[in-house]
Amino acid sequence: MSTVNYHVIGISRSHLREIGILLKADALVIFSPMVSGLDAQVKHNIESLDSNRADRLVVILDTYGGVIEVVERIVNTIRKYYNEMDVIIPDHAMSAGTIFALSADNIYMNYFSYLGPIDPQVVQSDGRLSPALGYLEQFNRLSDESKDRELTQAEAILLEKLDLADLYRYDQAREHSVELIEDWLSKYKFKSWINTETKKEIVTEEKRKSRAKDIAKQLNNTKRWHAHGRGINMHIMKEELKLKIEDFDTNDKLSSQIRLLYDLITDYMGKTGLNMHVDIQGYKNE
């Protein structure tokens, strides 16, 4: 690593350390697609703290999404070592990244941050990642239309190319994403939801799971969001999905450190061509 790179990493770690101090937590930064190898990087970073880990971890996350199974392994690793986990979204966490965010006890965003629809990506034979729901929607649309009219030659060829085994895999990925959100939201984010806000009724475990499943299905609804890359901002998450989101702009010091860290790392990754950056700073090491 060059002297310049060491200098940049040193500065980024100072910002990461400050975020951890402000939130009284170990601080982990993940700027990466959710792909194979990332889970091992996260595991290595967390275990590098040995016995000096805090009870709480804050993850600064920036990702366009990826593979759900990778997210599941990362979350399971974090939950093995930490009693609490918060996620900060400086800019975006799409698809599988949104699932990651919904596994947190608290989610921090600001007016500029956005999450995305839950459209799980699957690895194709050539290594490409493809959004599963797009294929399912296309198949269902063409199948329905073929009942009422004769498909064009192009549509018929497209329908024939959609492999039933792949479609089953896509459907399983969709169901898996809903199940993870239902489990994680009810277990972590909703654990302190004791009474309903208006009627002050007692919130049962069944109600937590039902509410989590409703949110998962809304985020999984491609007809509502229209596009895999559609951004869902903090206002929509709070007002339409009724999910509690912390606005990190209400804390000037925290907001400043998040922005400085984000700008530095994205500039560094852009100039070096890196597509994965993972690093951790321990709160107890101070």
Please give a structural write-up:
The two termini are 25 Å apart. The strands form three sheets. A six-stranded mixed β-sheet has the order 10-5-3-2-1-11, with helices on both faces. A three-stranded mixed β-sheet has the order 4-6-9. Strands 7-8 form a two-stranded antiparallel ribbon. The chain has a single domain, classed as Alpha-Beta Complex (2-enoyl-CoA Hydratase, Chain A, domain 1). Helix 5 (132-148) crosses helix 7 (164-189) and helix 7 crosses helix 8 (205-219). The protein has helices spanning 3-23, 38-47, 68-81, 96-101, 132-148, 153-161, 164-189, 205-219, 222-225, 234-239, 252-272, and strands at residues 26-31, 56-62, 84-88, 92-93, 106-109, 114-115, 121-123, 129-131, 232-233, 246-247, 277-281. With 286 residues, it is an alpha/beta fold.
Strand and helix order: HEHEHEEHEEEEHHHHHEHEHE
Task: Give the strand tally.
Answer: 11
Number of domains: 1
Instruction: Tell me which CATH architecture applies here.
Output: Alpha-Beta Complex
Task: Report the biggest beta sheet as strand number plus sense, adding barrel if it closes.
Answer: 6 strands, mixed
What's the gyration radius in Å?
Answer: 20 Å
Class computed from helices, strands and strand pairing: alpha/beta
User: How many helices?
Assistant: 11
- Per CATH, the class reads Alpha Beta
Runs in which pLDDT lies below 50 for 5 or more consecutive residues are none
Q: Provide the helix percentage.
A: 40-55%
Give the overall silhouette.
Answer: globular
Average residue-wise pLDDT: 87
Q: What is the CATH topology?
A: 2-enoyl-CoA Hydratase, Chain A, domain 1
Intertermini distance: 25 Å
Beta-strand content: 5-15%
Spatial strand arrangement across the major sheet: 10-5-3-2-1-11
CATH homologous superfamily (4th level) name: 2-enoyl-CoA Hydratase, Chain A, domain 1
GO cellular component, one term: membrane
Pfam families: SDH_protease
InterPro entries: ClpP/crotonase-like_dom_sf, Pept_S49_ser-pept_pro
Protein name: Serine dehydrogenase proteinase
